[in-house]
Amino acid sequence: MGQGHLGGEQVTTERPLAIVTGGARGIGAACAVRLAADGYDIAFCHRNPGTAAEAVETECAERGAAVFRAVCDIADAAAVDDFVRAAQQRFGDPAVLVAAAGITRDGLLIRATEDDWDRVLRTNLSGVRHICKAVVPGMMRRRAGSIVTLSSVAGLTAALGQSNYAATKAGIIGFGKALSAEVARFGVRVNAVAPGFIETEMTEALGPEALREARKTIPMRRFGAPREVAALVSFLASEEASYITGHTFCVDGGLAA
């Protein structure tokens, strides 16, 4: 597991810790930067090394956050445990978790391979389970915490060629509802955010024609920006949302409506 500039040093800070998976790109990166601006130290993991993660680290640090980052495949439960343990050793137990990491392997069911199904489920759904299981004990010790999982409107509405992806995103919603009931008495909240079409590398991969057609289906006739999702995540992480748990919130320009 790789790590950021903090190495193995213990960090003394008055800022609470936010952990973000998939924090190097897209919505995860926007959430990490927004939470840094909100006053959190940031620990984020990402699947691939590179300049994108370095840029996010720099942006978070510019907003006053101490930052720890690690290369971690969230489909690997042991790697996730190592990442969370390393973050806790530096900052203590987390106050916020944003489970944003996810992948797509789109294709019609009759053409999809077993690997297409397995990889998406292991990353998108099992990955959320792994990170939540690693983080929840620390939040229970603090008797406070906010978990925000990233679902999708694909988990709520028909998603042509995305049976694997839709299954994971619907599963995240059900998982979060059950978990919210388990941990509410410990002061831990669990909510899901379900973005629609957001301007990220994932949507760009659809191609120009598919993107044009997609815009026609959105009542607001535009795609969202990662910062618009991060704004909702910021609210759900805050004390202003202290009586909200077990719910799913769409950021989709009216698509699911």
UniProtKB/TrEMBL annotation:
UniProt xrefs under PROSITE patterns: ADH_SHORT
Major subcellular location class: secreted
* Reaction(s) the record says it catalyses: a (3R)-hydroxyacyl-[ACP] + NADP(+) = a 3-oxoacyl-[ACP] + NADPH + H(+)
Q: Where in this chain does the record put each Ketoreductase domain?
A: 16-196
Which GO BP terms, alphabetically? monocarboxylic acid metabolic process
Say yes or no: keyword Secreted present.
yes
Q: Where in the cell is it found?
A: Secreted, Cell wall
Q: Name one GO molecular function term.
A: 3-oxoacyl-[acyl-carrier-protein] reductase (NADPH) activity
Key words, A-Z = Cell wall, Oxidoreductase, Secreted
Name a Pfam family for this protein.
adh_short_C2
Q: What family classification does the UniProt entry report for this protein? A: Belongs to the short-chain dehydrogenases/reductases (SDR) family.
- Which PANTHER family does this chain map to? 3-OXOACYL-(ACYL-CARRIER-PROTEIN) REDUCTASE (PTHR42879), 3-OXOACYL-[ACYL-CARRIER-PROTEIN] REDUCTASE FABG (PTHR42879:SF2)
- NCBIfam families xrefs: PRK12826.1-2 (NF009466)
Q: What is this protein called?
A: 3-oxoacyl-[acyl-carrier-protein] reductase MabA
**Originating species:** Nocardia terpenica
| Taxonomic lineage from the root | Bacteria, Bacillati, Actinomycetota, Actinomycetes, Mycobacteriales
